[in-house]
Structures are given as C-alpha cells and as structure tokens.
Amino acid sequence: MTQTATFHDLDGKSVFITGGGSGIGANLTEGFLRQGAKVAFVGRSDAAAFVDAMEDETGNRPLFIQCDITDTPAIQAAIAQVTEAHGPVGVLVNNAANDQRHSTEEVTEEFWDWMQAINLKAHFFACQAVVEGMKTLGGGSIINLTSISYMMGGAGYPLYTTANSGLNGMTRSLAREFGSQSIRVNALAPGWVLTQKQLDKWADPASLATHLEKQCLKEHLKPDDIVSGTLFLASSASRMMTGQALVIDGGVAVTG
C-alpha cells in the first residue's frame, strides 16, 4: 500500500470496521493501521492469518472479532468488546456488504430479508451502538459505504441497490439527528472496485471494457483507491462535512 497522506488525529483513534478482513475492508484496515489507529474489525471468516500479516507489515496489530453482522446482538457485543479494549469507538466504517446478483422474479421474502439485513440493517444497528460512546468523546465520524449502483439504476441486483439508496437516506437523517453532538455521518460510494471477488465472479473482459468506457478516468479502480477518501472522512480534515455522499468511481456518476 502506498500511503499518500498522514492524518495525525487518527493516531491512537479507536476505529471499528465491518468486513475488515477481505476485499476493500482489508485495505481499509491496513490504511487505518498505518495511520497509527487502534483498529478492530469483524468478519464471518477466520482472519487470524490476516491479523498476523498486518502486525508484521505495519507494526500495529488489529483486533479481530468473528461475527455475523446480520446478528444484531452479536454486532452490539462486538462493539462493546472493542470499547473495553480500545476505548469508545471514534470512527465507525460500515463496509461489509453483499452484492449477490439476482433478478426481481426470483426474489423470495427470505432472500429480501437476508439482503437487507446485510446491506442496510446491520449498518443502522452498528451506528446505534457507537453513538453513546461518541457522545462521551465529544464527537465522532461514521462512514457508510454505499455504491454508485443505486445512482445509476444498476440492473441485476435490485435488492442491493434498494439497500444502497436506503443507506444514503439513513446517512442524511443520522447526520441531522446527531450533528449537535459533533457526530458526523457521511456516505462513501465507490464505483466498480476490482476486488478478488469481483475478478473471480463478474469481471469478464467485455464487462470491464464496457464499464471503463463509462469512466472519465480510464483506469480500473483498485481497493486502495477507496482508502484515502475514507481516511479523509474519518479525520478532522473533513470536520465540517456531514450528511454527504463522497463518490470515488473514476467519473461514472457525475454528481452535483
């Protein structure tokens, strides 16, 4: 990872990341560790090897808690454990998501509930669980990772885009609700980031070429491209920014 900026106020900050052991989340974990933050993350799969690798590479060991984010008591317990270990969470990054492809016709009620639990409900209850601790700190930063897919009306995963749009509304409402306590809530909307999962499942040459044609910047996004924007939103460098959606997509969705 190439570190492009240092945010001094993140040194020693208690940071909690969902899905921080793989994909974009793994790069976010590394990025915060390199800033000197006390990083904790949750994920469904064992991440012991990743934790060891991060300590070797950064000199800063993250705290991993194995947890299914669709289990609300489990995510609440994880945040309580992190608070005990690292102090109140000052930065929450709601990163974990599932963009499983599906058609409208095949959606069942059970699949609907599962997709919303992963992509929307878990984000809300993680926000709820960190608010009291952020109040004791005199403020904090919550970053909800969404996607440009809802902005573009992307087909092939309507429940995912529904949740993404919901996250944007939730972000704005929580920013308004907790702004008086100096708790900032922003969304970050990546474009098509070529994680290993994307490369393995959906990034065939034709799809890659079609998407690149839509971008102003003619280079595919990598997980590292999302890190600096997240660090900026976490830091006091963005102290007067809240209720916003920061888009990092190479110029597909031109906002404003």
TrEMBL record:
Keyword flag Oxidoreductase: yes
Keyword Oxidoreductase listed: yes
Domain (Ketoreductase): residue spans on this chain: 13-205
GO molecular function: gluconate 5-dehydrogenase activity
Keyword tags: Oxidoreductase
EC nos: 1.1.1.69
Stored SMART domains: PKS_KR (SM00822)
Enzyme class (EC, first level): oxidoreductase
Signal peptide positions (record): none
Family: Belongs to the short-chain dehydrogenases/reductases (SDR) family.
UniProt-recorded name of the protein: Gluconate 5-dehydrogenase
